[in-house]
Amino acid sequence: MRTTDAVRASDALRHRTAGAVRASDAVRTPDTERRDRPEAAAPAGARRPRPTPTPAAPPADLTRPHPTPAPSPAAPCLALVLAGALIPVRGAGQDPTRLGREAPDCAHVPGLAALDQVSRAHAELYWHAGRLYVADTDSVNGTYVDGLRISRPAQLWPGGHRLRLADDPEGVDVTVVELDEYGAPL
C-alpha cells in the first residue's frame, strides 16, 4: 500500500468512527481508480451504456406542504357609517382610512363635498396594537371623540366611542360598526 493510500485509509476510518462518512474518504485502489475514469471503464471499441436520466424532482411546494403560520388575532372587519354611507376601515398594516370632503375613501358619500364644516382632509383612522385610533389632520373645526376635541390620536375601538367631525350643528356624526362575513353591519 502506498503512503497516500494509507493516509486516506486512516482518514476514512477516523471519519467513520466519528459518524461522518463521505464519498471522498473512500480508499482508492487501482481497480476503483480505473472504474472511476470514463476512458478506462470500458474496453476499447465497446459501447458505453447511456447514463440513466435521474427523474427531475417535483417543485418543492408540491413535495411537502408549507407550514401555515398560526393565525394571529386579527382585527375585526369594521366600517364607518358617515351620512348614511358605509366606509370600510382598512385593516392593520395598510394605509390609514382617511375622512374628509376630498378624501378618496369618502368620495361615494352623498352630500359630504358640500359640507363646509368638514375639512378636505379632516381625520384618519389607523390600527395600532389591535386597537383602532383616530387622529385629527389639522382640520379647522376639529375632530371629537365622546364630545371632547382631540389634539392627539384617540382610541376609537373597542369601546363604543362616539366620533364627530366638527362640533357645530352642521357637524357629522360617524358611527363605527362591526361587519359580518358578508359585509353587512352587525
Description:
- The chain has 186 residues and is α+β, with helices and mostly antiparallel strands.
- It has a domain of 103 residues: Sandwich (Tumour Suppressor Smad4).
- Helices cover 17% and strands 23% of the residues.
- It contains four helices and ten strands.
- A six-stranded antiparallel beta sheet has the order 2-1-10-9-6-7, with no helix packed on it. A four-stranded antiparallel beta sheet has the order 3-4-5-8, with no helix packed on it.
- The radius of gyration is 36 Å and the shape is elongated.
- About 3% of the residues have low confidence.
- InterPro entries: FHA_dom, SMAD_FHA_dom_sf.
C-alpha-based Rg, rounded: 36 Å
Can you count the beta strands?
A: 10
Q: Tally the helices: what do you get?
A: 4
In whole angstroms, how far apart are the ends? 87 Å
Strand content: 15-25%
Which helices and strands, and how do they pair?
Elements: H1 3-18, H2 30-36, H3 38-41, H4 60-63, E1 78-82, E2 85-88, E3 97-99, E4 123-128, E5 131-136, E6 143-145, E7 148-149, E8 154-157, E9 163-165, E10 172-178
Antiparallel strand pairs: 1-2, 1-10, 3-4, 4-5, 5-8, 6-7, 6-9, 9-10
Structure at a glance:
This protein has 186 residues and is an alpha+beta fold. It is built from four helices and ten strands; from the N terminus they run ααααββββββββββ. The longest helix is centred in the first third of the chain and has 16 residues, at 3-18.
